[in-house]
Design a protein that fits this description.
This protein has about 55 residues and is mainly α. It contains three helices and no strands. It has helices at about 5-25, 35-40, 45-50. It is elongated, with a radius of gyration of 21 Å.
Amino acid sequence: MDILFLLVPLSVLLVLAILGVFAWALHSGQFEDLEREGQRLLEETPAEATRVE
């Protein structure tokens, strides 16, 4: 039972930290243009980037 006095506050702090990182990502524009990033992954890479030396 004593472990709950440690785990409950730690879990609350973890949830607050995760929410803080998510809010920072939203505020900094990480999720602004998802369509372009998805298309960028499907595009061909330039020939010089795939060249093996």
